[in-house]
Amino acid sequence: MLGHGDLMDKDGTRRWLCKKTQHMIGGFGKAPGHPPDIYHSYMGLAALAVMPTEGIKPLDAALCVSQEAKDKIAKDIQEYFSPAAHPLLLNRKPAAASETATEVVFQ
Known about the structure:
Blueprint: H1 10-21, H2 38-49, E1 59-60, E2 65-66, H3 67-80, H4 87-90, H5 101-105
Antiparallel strand pairs: 1-2
């Protein structure tokens, strides 16, 4: 249904998730009357997030994480791979073919 939210009965889906599969102790079960479990609780929240639903962060469906988490991961990756993150590597000459990994690390 991703990319075709217009084909979905969002209100009906929200109602079914919240009234039929949401458990009184919290979480979502596989089907009405089933106990909640982590997998179906996550998938229930993910389904609500892609609709979107008030109070639930938008979801990046490709990574199955919130858009906020995706943005943080992208920022962390960019910072990690920036030259400023590894100042010891900036002035290092290329390793000679005869150097071992230990020699390279301890130069």
